[in-house]
Design goal:
Layout lengths: L10 H12 L14 H13 L11 H22 L4 H6 L12 H8 L5 H6 L25
């Protein structure tokens, strides 16, 4: 590694060494390689031994934010589309978004069945039974009747 050698011919290695000397609160540690790190190590070594300075590409903050947001939304949409959970919600809100949907909270609760309903509470062991006191399954469409 070129960094510990202050006489390295690599300009970047010398700059890093100088920065480390001027900032004693920064510590470098060796971390055992994980799958794929060998390639990163080889590229890092090649860069450290190179006499060339790295090419710096300047991108605006707005462009980076937009690109990262688009990438994140695409990954999220893929997980949502290919997932096997939340399908009742997926059926009414199939597209992910950073903005609220046009569905109201009450409508979403009603149509997904995720709410204060006996069958839903029982599913998560928050109720001992999925039945209403009247004896019918407590779904969003169930209208409780007086239990006799």
């Amino acid at each position: 590694m070129a960094v510990p050698n202050p006489k390295s011919p690599n300009k970047m290695a010398r700059e890093v060494f100088t920065k480390l000397l001027n900032h004693p609160n920064i510590h470098l540690k060796w971390i055992k390689a994980h799958f794929g790190n060998e390639t990163a190590d080889a590229l890092a070594k090649e860069a450290a031994e190179s006499q060339n300075l790295p090419t710096i590409v300047k991108l605006s903050k707005a462009y980076l934010k937009s690109s990262l947001t688009k990438s994140m939304l695409n990954a999220w949409q893929k997980l949502w589309t290919e997932g096997d959970t939340g399908r009742s919600t997926f059926n009414i809100i199939p597209t992910v978004s950073l903005h609220p949907s046009n569905w109201t909270r009450d409508d979403t609760i009603f149509f997904t069945g995720h709410g204060p309903f006996q069958f839903y509470l029982h599913r998560f062991n928050l109720s001992p039974t999925s039945f209403c006191p009247c004896g019918q399954v407590g779904t969003p469409l169930h209208k409780p009747q007086n239990a006799s």
